[in-house]
Amino acid sequence: MKKTIKHIINHSLFVLALVAVVVFGCRCTTTKPDPLAGWQIAFKEEPNQVIAKDCQDYIQKQNLSPQEGKYVAYIEFLKDGTGQRAEKITISLNQTDWVHVLIYDKDNKRIKTIKYISGHSRS
Length: 123
What we know:
By secondary structure, the protein is an alpha+beta fold. It is 29% helix and 33% strand.
């Protein structure tokens, strides 16, 4: 009888340990690759007038209001080695930082828009 109780306790502990490993040990996270990996910040360059106007139009369409905690935190101008350009706009919306990436081809035509959360802040 003692042997049976000991066996049940050992078996129960093993099952609990296995459950703990499954629940706490398998933290699956999916991270999206950086859409601007390999791009360089163009410190000495300003975006041309076509890109600058498109960027300002895009920002205006976001209906930002500093009174409501919605504002542009900063804008970065980037380029890659193939002649493409990008505007990386960080917008703060109620303690959540959203990045909007506007990608332009060699002819300054917007070819892609990417939007993702880059972080959160607390007041």
